[in-house]
Structure formats: structure tokens, C-alpha cells
Amino acid sequence: MLIYNDTFAWDGFGGKLKLASGECWLRIIDRRKASAEGEGVTFVRPYIIIVSDKSGKKMSVKSCAGHIATLVTEKFNIAPNRMYYIEYYDKIEYGQNPRKTIPEKFESVEFDWHDSKAINPRWRSVNQSIIDMIKSALKATPPLPVSDY
Predict the structure, then answer these.
(1) Residue 1 per-residue DSSP state
(2) What span, in angstroms and rounded, lies between the C-alpha atoms of 79 and 86?
(3) In this structure, are residues 87 and 106 in contact, taking their beta carbons and an 8 Å threshold?
(4) 30-33: long-range contacts (C-beta < 8 A, 24 or more apart)?
(5) Residue 79 per-residue DSSP state
(6) What is the pLDDT of residues 45-59, one digit of tens each?
(7) Which H or E element spans position 66?
(8) What's the number of domains the chain is made of?
(9) Model's pTM, two decimal places?
């Protein structure tokens, strides 16, 4: 079940300049609250954190992965070893005849945790069964505004 679906902002560093500050789309799925999937099942990582870039923003979720993951664990009181952190990139079409397409992409990010801070991100592809579960959970919720994708 989707428990959070909104813009997530973070402060950067650098005082008034707010270097490396930004915002992204954040969705949090708690698999324990899914009616059919969660019955009688214990999940090692019940929380799926999905972050996506917002158009027009200077800082990408990839460049701030550790900072975002750290803030999400703090704000939502999620233990780092209980979450599955995923970056989502929407399908992109460009060019003219023939049009080229970059397919949508889900990337899992693993971190080392030191003093409650996410460091040393490593990106990997996501298992298709997890992608299917994510898509199913997201279909049950209203879409995000198209203008911000």
C-alpha cells in the first residue's frame, strides 16, 4: 500500500546559497499494509522507497541519492536495513523519423550506512517481480501532475 506520494524537498549546504538543495517525487510503499500480499508474510524489507526527478530541477536524485536516503530514514522513521531504495526514470522519446525511445528504468540503490548516514551508493537493476509489484501499487493511486514529470 502506498503510504506517501508527494514532493520531497531537501536542504543542501552552503548557507544562503543552498548548494545541492532540491526536490523530487517520493513514493513510499509499505508492503505489510497490502491486503493480499501482506497476509501472514514477514518482509525483511517492507518499505519500498521510490524517488524520481522532477523536471526543471537542477539536482538529480542520482547525484543526491545518499542525502535523500538519509533524510527519508530520519523523517519517516524507517530503519535503513528495512527499506528497498529505488530510483525511477520515466520513458523518454526524442528525435524525428524514426523516433528514438529510452525505456523507463528502475534502479535499486544499495548504501553503506555510517553513523545513520547513507554513503557509497551502488546502483543495480531491479528484479521484474518487484517492478510488477511497484506498478500495481502505483496504479491504485492517483497520478502525479503531468506538468512536473
Answers:
(1) -
(2) 16
(3) yes
(4) 30/1, 30/3, 31/1, 31/133, 33/1, 33/3
(5) -
(6) 899 999 999 876 677
(7) helix 65-75
(8) 1
(9) 0.83
